[in-house]
Amino acid sequence: MKTPSDAGNSATVAEAPLQARATFTSSLGVLAATLGSAVGLGNIWKFPALTGLNGGAAFVMLYLLCVILIGMPVMWAELTIGRNSRANTVAAFQKLAPKTPWYLIGVSGVVSAVLIMGFYTVVCGWIYAYIFRAATGALAVPPEQTVEVFNALYTSPIQPIVWQWIVLAVTSAIVMAGVTKGIEAATKRLMPLLFLLLLICDIRALTLPGASEGLSFLLKPDLSKITAPTVLAAMGLAFFKLSLGMGCMVTYGSYINKNENLIKNTGKVVAADTTVSLLAGLAIFPAVFAFGYEPTSGPSLLFITIPAVFRSMPLGGLFCFLFFVLAAVAATGAMISLIEVPVAYLTERFGWKRNLATLATALSMALLGVGAALSSSLLSEFKIIGRTLFDTYDFVTSNVLLPVGGIFIALFVGWKWRQAAIAENGGATAAINAFTVFLRFVAPIAITLVLLQGLGIIRF
Ligand code: PHE
């Protein structure tokens, strides 16, 4: 994984008089950075949790549809806006459409980044706690009891906050320091390792007695499970998963060289990211059914099933430890990109030093985050329209702000800025023509309908 802060230290840095604007140095660097943002807790935690809650295969199908019809063109649009404007997500729209309200897309992105981190750091904190527990042998309980281990952590009023702040401190330190070549080299090796570990989990989970029920849950769609909120959840997941609708890919696009092929990069990121989610699903659902857990347990699913799967194999303790370390690594790539959105804005807009901008960003995330960290203990009864703070941050970003951001990004590139977007990609090709048609018509209409239906504003 390579991040902009890192790229600042390496070659081909285009220096503007006032501020340095870094560029990723190779196609692999671009792929690693964008994939590093996309792959994260969304794949191993959110995708399985939502699939379980929304009835399995039918949800997976809807999700794939959203990724292809909406996710791919929007990702291409964001990368194109970023590369052309070479600016943070607010300034990008101000540059491309001066004196218009389009820059509000960028503002919404900065707000979304802080809100997402509010709950993302809680989940990553649980992961850190599990690394610690795996190392000390505290996860070595019979498969049927892993649920109690999770509940002890989940309902504690103190531990989640402590872990959350450790997560924020570690991630901010990385963002401040700029990711050195060493860490970059390490993450490049760790990602394939995560892949390998998922495969090992898959094989074990699929060979458990009773695994086939989980497999059909994941692969055999029951169309009666599809409701308007399910479709909205699938679409929200597509945005969250691919880091779209909030300027993350605009920001990363701004560090990409002119000679990179944005369409190809988009295709590769989407394919790799979706594969990781499906592998995670294949590791989790067979085990859910084999050990008699409920697939609908939501956020706790990963933390209950994965330790149980590892318990039932040789060297399980070691593998379990490794699994959660790699999950933390994957989450870190995503969190770096989330922090980068406000940091790029603050440094460029107000001329703040990178360290100050990171500190301010992390602090606001920590303050908001406490509400989410306490949502399963002291604040469990505090609800906004029936949702705890944790669920509110999640719902408002994935299911409202990111899709709304997506509508306007699609409209912007599809209508207002289309010719320039095509030129930025070296002229029209079949793929670009298809993407622009999707951006003009399919994405805005589909997102609007799904949103209004899912929120219960209109009913067919
Ligand atoms: N895509 C990341 C994940 O799946 C989360 C994320 C969302 C990152 C939005 C950046 C922006 O975990």
What is the secondary structure topology, with strand pairs?
Elements: H1 4-7, E1 14-15, E2 20-21, H2 27-38, H3 41-53, H4 57-85, H5 89-96, H6 104-136, H7 146-154, H8 159-177, H9 181-206, H10 212-219, H11 228-241, H12 248-253, H13 262-290, H14 301-311, H15 316-350, H16 354-373, H17 389-416, H18 418-424, H19 430-454
Antiparallel strand pairs: 1-2
Phenylalanine (PHE) is lined by residues 37-38, 40-43, 116, 240-241, 243, 246, 248, 334, 337-338.
Folded structure, characterized:
The protein is mainly alpha-helical and 460 residues long. It has one domain: Amino acid/polyamine transporter I (Up-down Bundle). It has 19 helices and two strands. The protein has a two-stranded antiparallel ribbon with strand order 1-2. A hairpin with a 4-residue loop joins strand 1 and strand 2. Helix 10 packs antiparallel against helix 13. The structure holds phenylalanine. The site of phenylalanine has 15 residues, from helix 2, helix 3, helix 11 and helix 15.
Short description:
The protein is mostly helical and 460 residues long. The protein is built from 19 helices and 2 strands. Helix 3 packs across helix 13, helix 4 packs across helix 11 and helix 17 crosses helix 19.
